[in-house]
């Protein structure tokens, strides 16, 4: 005779600023006339990126904040990585042309999931949201983890500004601010423990 007990690894791990442990950023521009900047503040949870092009070439900046979780479950399982954040962005392309783009990603270990993207490739100014104020967003992604496996989960934002091919007079800007409110590692199923 044996008894089957349902064990719930019910503890959802939640990390909020200022306890974020991962902060990374990069910036690259193709000429002194172009620019790319990034800022990471793990204490407040805020990240900023900006990229602009004046003339030809390209600028790109990426910024991310996150945390490295440790899975202490007894068996392999499936988990939701949940990102909760406030966000706003601006894309601007002058009449002389160019392309501006913003991408928001949920990065989990070595995998990347794009959760939002906006592109402006014609003359104009695009705000997201249209009010220009911060909007609160929650996104989640289902993953599989082994007992003891580390889970590095981050929210990342990238700004790209570039001149279109053959355009030596491009003038465009991409900028975004993202405030990480919390990152969760949430079990999705019960684990079975068999006791004889």
Inertia-based shape: elongated
Number of helices: 0
| Low-confidence runs | 1-8, 191-196
Note the beta-strand portion.
Answer: over 45%
Mean pLDDT across all amino acids: 89
What structural class do helix, strand and pairing data support? mainly beta
Helix-strand pattern? EEEEEEEEEEEEEE
Q: In this structure, how is the largest beta sheet organized?
A: 7 strands, antiparallel
Tags for this entry?
single chain; 196 residues; mainly beta; seven-stranded antiparallel β-sheet; five-stranded antiparallel β-sheet; 0% helix; 69% strand
Summed up:
With 196 residues, the protein is mainly β. The chain contains no helices and 14 strands.
